[in-house]
Design goal:
- The protein is mostly helical.
- The protein has one domain.
- 88% of the residues lie in helices and 0% in strands.
- The protein has three helices and no strands.
- The two termini are 30 Å apart.
- 0% of the residues are buried.
């Protein structure tokens, strides 16, 4: 049963750490922007920079594996 669930999940999520990082960064930006009353432009830039950093880290980690 667990193997079936893992296989089903792997159809949608290739890198669990990358997916978790994205979800956590989105939550951090959403909460931080609301608490600090940051403008939408600044929040958008921070969102982009964080997601770009996560993508670069995931690519470097995948390159080391292969």
């Amino acid at each position: 049963m667990t193997k079936i669930i893992r296989e089903l999940l792997s159809l949608f999520v290739d890198d669990g750490a990358f997916a978790l990082g994205i979800v956590l960064w989105l939550a951090a930006i959403w909460i931080g922007a609301n608490l600090l009353h940051v403008g939408q432009e600044i929040a958008a830039v921070l969102l982009f920079l964080g997601l770009a950093a996560l993508l670069v880290e995931a690519v470097l980690r995948a390159a080391r594996r292969s």
